[in-house]
Amino acid sequence: MDPFLWENGKMIDLGTFGGVFGFPNGMNNRGQVIGGSSVASNPGACNFENTNPGCDPFLWDGSKLIDLSVSSVGGSPQSAFWINDAGEIVGGGTFPNAPFDAYLWRKGIATDLGALPGDCFSEAYAINESSQVIGDSFDCTATFHHPFLWENGSMVDLNSLIPADSSLELVAVGPLSFSVSPLNDRGEIAGVGVPPGVSPGDMPVLGHAFLLIPCDENHPNIAGCDYSLVDTSTVAALTANEQSQAVPKTPPTSDAIRRLILSSGLRSSWRRSFGVQQPK
């Protein structure tokens, strides 16, 4: 089973790396496609499992299939979950000093994004047009997830960005779906958390959906937001290096990591964590 692209009324077979299985994971507005393909030495790999040995992540650039695992400089991607319109790809991969970390792939170079303090592994699941990356960081048993935001070279635990009295402990941001990104271009983030008294390990049966909304100029009149953190002085404080990274509208990380609030879907009701509307 080969991955395909339907374009202008015809089906394009993207091919494989010599195996019999392949699948797409995403496509950007330039027509570039990412996914996974089994290799000739392990033709049965890649049966919808993104990180099986022999299931290599690919980029289809419009003319050819590129094996990201063997062609990338800096590391070896093992999964590819999302691609933005700049052609930047995120997933998880192996690096000389890390057995499995989240990566950001740009123009053939895979950059190790690291893991949160105290954790041993990580994987990235989405990237938006401002090159913000979200994913999960894992403890050294690979059991517990800690959702993160990465931007401008810094990784931050999302649980540190929400009020201390929030109704949920954030547990994971993905992969919630292979077709819907848990991060949009407005910087809003979706995921799953657990209420007080519930173990993160019980997330599959007792988890609640959450939505993180940035307190910025794009989200006015959000209850509980401190908009004094977002003004012209923060934009002016961007360094020349940050401005050169094609994200001139994003405030510095030190401010960005303080400008998220939590909204959480509690069963069939909806409430803001600041008590704007209580669930019935």
What does this protein structure show overall?
The chain has one domain. Helices cover 8% and strands 40% of the residues. The chain has five helices and 20 strands. The strands form five sheets. Strands 7, 8, 9, 10 and 11 form a five-stranded antiparallel β-sheet that branches. It is globular. Residues 231-259 and 262-280 have low confidence and may be disordered.
* Proportion in helices: under 10%
Number of strands: 20
> What characteristic shape results from the CA principal axes?
globular
Low-confidence stretches: 231-259, 262-280
Percent in strands: 35-45%
Structural class per helix/strand content?
mainly beta
User: Sheet with the most strands?
Assistant: 5 strands, antiparallel
pLDDT average, as an integer? 77
Number of domains: 1
**Radius of gyration over C-alpha positions, nearest whole angstrom:** 19 Å
Quaternary state reads single chain
Amino- and carboxy-terminal Cα gap: 48 Å
Order of helices and strands: EEEEEEHEEEEEEEEEEEHEHHHEE
**How many H/I helical runs?**
5
Provide the fold topology.
Blueprint: E1 4-7, E2 10-13, E3 18-27, E4 33-39, E5 55-60, E6 65-67, H1 68-71, E7 76-77, E8 82-83, E9 89-95, E10 98-106, E11 109-114, E12 121-127, E13 133-138, E14 145-151, E15 154-157, E16 169-172, E17 189-194, H2 203-206, E18 208-214, H3 232-236, H4 240-243, H5 253-256, E19 260-266, E20 269-272
Antiparallel strand pairs: 1-2, 3-4, 4-5, 5-6, 7-9, 8-9, 9-10, 10-11, 12-13, 13-14, 14-15, 16-17, 17-18, 18-19, 19-20
